[in-house]
């Protein structure tokens, strides 16, 4: 991913927190042409290494590329917003502020009990906040038989590239002008960008 130096984020703790909070990503693999699937990709740590866990439908042709892939790419997007150059005190072109993380790694299929445990972790994570949470162990054999229709996998992470494009190249006056204008918009993503910017460069 192309990242100008002042937009790079090398804070591993912050990046890992971002991946946990924005776990719905895009898995990209090769083949005769590039294939991409929008799926939950859960970050886990095991023996000091980090992995992404996921699954795709067996009817999705992408899984057939897994065995031939030396490296796969997972893309995660955070909030983003248009930034008008009318908010600066000088003439400039408009731009876009955003957060994105690209994760590269080695993929292998997960089967058997390990695959069942993977699905249980996913369900339990998202059911935890439900009023009447579903428990995988209480689902019928008929329902759980649907597992045969999906392919589980894990990606051992080998590289992470993160860009936090948040007007870092501007002076304090223009930086906080952008924050104030973003806070005025009715768009939640713009408001989220404003909050991130305030955390990155608080007013003195």
Overview of this structure, please?
It contains 5 helices and 7 strands. The chain is of the alpha+beta class. It has a 7-stranded antiparallel sheet. Strand 3 (42-46) and strand 4 (49-57) form a beta hairpin. Helix 4 runs antiparallel to helix 5. The protein starts with 11 loop residues before the first helix and ends with a helix.
What is the straight-line distance between the termini?
33 Å
Q: What portion of residues is helical?
A: 25-40%
What is the approximate shape? Answer: elongated
* Strand neighbour order, sheet with most strands: 2-1-5-6-7-4-3
Tell me which oligomeric state these chains represent. Answer: single chain
* Percent in strands: 25-35%
If helices are DSSP runs of H or I spanning 4 or more residues, what is the number of helices? 5
Q: What would you report as the Rg, rounded to the nearest angstrom?
A: 20 Å
Low-confidence stretches: none
Average pLDDT, rounded to a whole number, is 94
Main structural class: alpha+beta
* Secondary-structure element pattern, one letter each: HEEEEEEHHEHH
Largest sheet: 7 strands, antiparallel
Write the layout of secondary structure elements.
Elements: H1 12-21, E1 24-29, E2 35-40, E3 42-46, E4 49-57, E5 72-83, E6 95-110, H2 112-127, H3 141-144, E7 150-165, H4 172-184, H5 188-200
Helix pairs in contact: 4-5
Relevant terms:
204 residues; 7 strands
Brief characterization of the structure:
The chain is of the alpha+beta class and 204 residues long. The chain has helices at residues 12-21, 112-127, 141-144, 172-184, 188-200, and strands spanning 24-29, 35-40, 42-46, 49-57, 72-83, 95-110, 150-165.
């Amino acid at each position: 991913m192309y990242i100008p130096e002042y937009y790079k984020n090398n804070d591993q703790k912050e990046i890992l927190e971002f991946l946990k909070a924005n776990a719905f990503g895009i898995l990209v693999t090769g083949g005769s042409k590039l294939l991409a699937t929008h799926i939950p990709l859960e970050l886990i740590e095991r023996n000091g290494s980090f992995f992404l866990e996921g699954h795709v439908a067996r009817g999705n042709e992408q899984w057939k590329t897994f065995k031939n892939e030396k490296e796969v790419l997972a893309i995660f997007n955070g909030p983003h917003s248009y930034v008008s150059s009318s908010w600066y005190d000088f003439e400039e072109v408009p731009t876009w502020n955003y957060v994105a993380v690209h994760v590269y790694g080695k993929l292998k299929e997960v089967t058997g009990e390990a695959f069942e445990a993977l699905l249980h972790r996913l369900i339990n994570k998202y059911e935890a906040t439900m009023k009447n949470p579903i428990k995988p162990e209480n689902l019928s054999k008929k329902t759980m038989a649907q597992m045969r229709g999906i392919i589980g996998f894990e990606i051992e992470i080998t590289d992470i590239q993160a860009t936090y494009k948040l007007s870092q190249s501007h002076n304090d006056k223009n930086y906080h002008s952008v924050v104030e204008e973003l806070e005025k918009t009715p768009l939640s993503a713009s408001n989220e960008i404003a909050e991130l910017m305030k955390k990155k460069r608080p007013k003195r």
